[in-house]
Amino acid sequence: MQNAGMAALQLNWRYLAFDVHPDRLRAAIEGARDMGFIGLNLTVPHKVLAVDMVDLLDEQAGAWRAVNTIVFETRDADGNWVPLAGVAAGQAGEVRSRGCNTDADAIARSLQEEFGRESWRGAAVLLLGAGGAARTAALRLARGGIASLAIVNRTAARAAELAREVRREHPGVAVTEGYPSHPVDLVLNATSLGLKADDPPPLDPAWLKARRPQFVYDMIYRPAETGLLRAARDAGCRAAGGAGMLLYQGARALELWTGRPAPLARMRQALEENLKSYV
Ligand SMILES: NC(=O)c1ccc[n+]([C@@H]2O[C@H](COP(=O)([O-])OP(=O)(O)OC[C@H]3O[C@@H](n4cnc5c(N)ncnc54)[C@H](OP(=O)(O)O)[C@@H]3O)[C@@H](O)[C@H]2O)c1
């Protein structure tokens, strides 16, 4: 997806994956900066660790206390900090790292695209999971004015911790732990259950049938059709997987690195082709 986007923008760049031990994350970020990398994406468990390892945070990374994108910046001829990409190769002086977060808005944008709903103000949400993706979704939806958030997680202590954080940051949202007794508008799966074909469902299919939430979103994008999505459609819910979320966080990251609009259609096509090959 990123390499297709970069090619469409005629950039002589490559997007590469590196397996970095969390103990070496600081050294990896500094090494990438010193080697002239344009930027980085980070995934679990690095997103939270990196908050203290970058020179500054943008508004989003500051709000969610998680970094999924780093932009290396340098000064232009007028002394303003700009993405490294804006300065001719070899001309950069001092370089700093800006920690950004493109995940939260990607969730909101994908939910809007999939379900045609601009706002979730007043909605009742059931969140499955309490890891990094669940936390970002919970805080983003709470900021968007949902009425209630019920959190279900295998490890109850993590659900309780997330519930405390959402209550503290957004006292107007009614946050509970466990399955709610009231009707639910949106179920969001942010657990890893569904990645493997023999995983148990993250949510009891009987609950789905009985309660019939209007919308079910599974953050998992591979496989494209998870057991949860099948069960949700069988129960008459509108259901969508997480490919849009992946696309939009990546497209925004590319925009931050380049300062140019992302070639969304080309990136979407590359992503869809790639995901099809995993069916
Ligand atoms: N679409 C996208 O762009 C996108 C982006 C990020 C993540 N995701 C997806 O979101 C999911 C969570 O990612 P994450 O980054 O939040 O990971 P994470 O921080 O490791 O959290 C994993 C979550 O899954 C739960 N879980 C794991 N194995 C389980 C099991 N066997 N039974 C029940 N619960 C289990 C964990 O519960 P415990 O707390 O009990 O361990 C935790 O709530 C993954 O499936 C990932 O692929 C999608």
Given as residue ranges, the uncertain stretches (5+ residues, pLDDT < 50) are none
CATH topology of the largest domain: Rossmann fold
- Can you list the ligands bound to this structure? NADP nicotinamide-adenine-dinucleotide phosphate
Give the DSSP E fraction (strand runs of 2 or more residues): 15-25%
The helix-and-strand class reads alpha/beta
- The average pLDDT value, as a whole number, equals 95
Number of strand segments:
11
The CATH architecture of the largest domain: 3-Layer(aba) Sandwich
| Share of helical residues | 25-40%
Q: Could you give a short account of the major beta sheet?
A: 6 strands, parallel
Outline:
The chain is 39% helix and 16% strand.
Question: What are its keywords?
Answer:
11 helices; Rossmann fold; alpha/beta; binds NADP nicotinamide-adenine-dinucleotide phosphate; 2 domains; six-stranded parallel sheet
